[in-house]
Amino acid sequence: MNLLRCHGLSKRYGNKLALDNVDLTLETGSPIALVGPNGAGKTTLLSLMLGFIKPSDGDIKVLGKQPGSAALLGKVAALPQDAALDPDFSLLTQLALYARLHGFNGKAAENEALRVLALVGLVDAARSLPKALSHGMGKRAAIAQALIGAPKLVLLDEPTAGLDPVNARNIRDLVSNLAADITFLISSHNLEELEKLCGKVLYLDHGKLSQAVDLTTQDSQTYLTLQMQPCDMVALQTQLQGLPGIEAIQPSGKHTLILKYQPAFSEQLDIQLLQLLHQQQLQYRMLIKGRTLEDQLFS
């Protein structure tokens, strides 16, 4: 099913062109990342998808419908970065209220509130006040609100911002577990988090769709990313170039190398590389198949 279809989509604010002739088609499925520098047009695109604003030129369809139309009520939800529940009313009270706004009545509204709390692992905190929750639990409670009514599309803005690694992992696991039934579009500056979670990445810059990277078909068969402990990187690069199958080596940052190799040497290259590092008594921090998202977008 078409999640999003844009054709010649542009948005102007006075003389400023915030979104510039974007053509894009996305299908429902695995989480999708939306990245780009501040002012790139990400918020404008999300606002157009939600029907908060109208395009200046072109057209946009969400789940085959006009954004903001009655046909999308309950099917599209959004969670802004700093969204928070009222600190003085329990989670159950507030979520049941939002469920009633979605058309649930009486006991059904409370059951829906408990259902979404179960999805985010907060049933035991149902009668707690938001101000009594940890930051990570507060994020999950806010996501629960966005899940009321079983939407087909959920827009998340910086869902792991300010979280420690454990709580960030909890949010990633939550999104992954729900992705079979809900398509998530996630706007974030945290490329490392997005790489672990998303199947596709859209890169906006100066209002234009600069790149669309499909992480499910990325170049893991022809690249290795090697991150080292501090060492003589120039000497190491020279030694690595002697390994069979190596076509090119590109530095990426102070202690990282991107190795491009011939696919036929894939199975033996890992072993030979590790043997070389052992012989030279060199320690590495990370060795992964493919390139990092940062390298794919900016190299």
TrEMBL record:
It holds the Pfam family ABC_tran. GO terms for molecular function: ATP binding; ATP hydrolysis activity. The keyword Nucleotide-binding applies. Keywords: ATP-binding, Nucleotide-binding, Transport. The keyword Iron does not apply. SMART domains: AAA (SM00382). Residues 4-231 form the ABC transporter domain. It comes from the Bacteria. InterPro entries: AAA+_ATPase, ABC_transporter-like_ATP-bd, P-loop_NTPase. Belongs to the ABC transporter superfamily. This is ABC-type multidrug transport system ATPase subunit. It comes from Shewanella fodinae. The lineage of its organism: Bacteria, Pseudomonadati, Pseudomonadota, Gammaproteobacteria, Alteromonadales.
